[in-house]
Design goal:
2-enoyl-CoA Hydratase, Chain A, domain 1, four-stranded parallel beta sheet, 10 helices, Enoyl-CoA_hydra/iso
Length: about 220
């Protein structure tokens, strides 16, 4: 996906009704020794980092349970859409663990330190409406009879992104992600570098031409 220029948006959904991702299989984990557990969690953390580093926008469609590593997967995405009936939580402390695939870092960046600490310390599960009220998800929708309401809303969101200039969207994502990790002056410099890369693109010229000619732009990603 990273190197396929035809890919414009990636939507993560589950094929299992009622479950987005239930996290690690604790029965499997119980059979591992301490060293194996460490390697397993490191690989999982690397996977989440790879998802977060995808150059195109990513959307998690949470139609059911997103617990532990399942919520960490959703947090690795740029945008999250949840059914109101979905259940989310970093529940690791209820099993004698702590989040190990990015949860302690991505959740506070998403909802703030205080809320993140409360959710992680308590291991509390919240529904889609609660997640929306605290900014954990971008949208919450009532579940439908097919059980894919969040996926359908995620597709609609993806279709809003599709008409926009692909390279500009990628640079926007890069500027936000890199800029959030530094002070604002450094972030402005990052934005400037991303903007400079966008200036010579054909899409920028097409966007200007379309505006002058009062027609929809036809972006190609070049």
């Amino acid at each position: 996906l990273r190197f396929d220029e035809k890919v414009r948006v990636v939507v993560f959904k589950s094929e299992v009704k009622g479950v987005f991702c239930a996290g690690a299989d604790l029965k499997e984990r119980a059979k591992m020794d301490d060293e194996e557990v460490g390697h397993f969690v490191k690989r999982l953390r690397n996977l989440m980092d790879e998802i977060a580093a995808l150059p195109v926008p990513t959307i998690a469609a949470i139609d059911g349970y997103a617990l532990g590593g399942g919520l960490e997967l959703a947090l690795a995405c740029d945008l999250r859409v949840a059914a109101s009936s979905a259940k989310m939580g970093l529940i690791e402390t209820t099993r004698g663990l702590l989040p190990g695939a990015g949860g302690t870092q991505r959740l506070p960046r998403c909802v703030g330190i205080g809320l993140a600490k409360e959710l992680i310390f308590t291991g509390r599960q919240i529904d889609g409406q609660q997640a929306f009220s605290m900014g954990l998800v971008n949208h919450t929708v009532p579940q439908n009879s097919e059980g894919d309401a969040a996926y359908q809303r995620a597709l609609a969101l993806a279709k809003e992104i599709l008409p926009q200039a692909p390279f500009a969207v990628k640079m926007g994502k890069l500027a936000i992600n890199r800029g959030m990790e530094v002070d604002i002056a450094s972030g402005m410099a990052i934005e400037g570098m991303c903007y400079a890369q966008n200036i010579p693109t054909r899409d920028r010229q097409e966007g200007m031409a379309a505006f002058r000619e009062k027609r929809p732009p036809q972006f190609t990603g070049k």
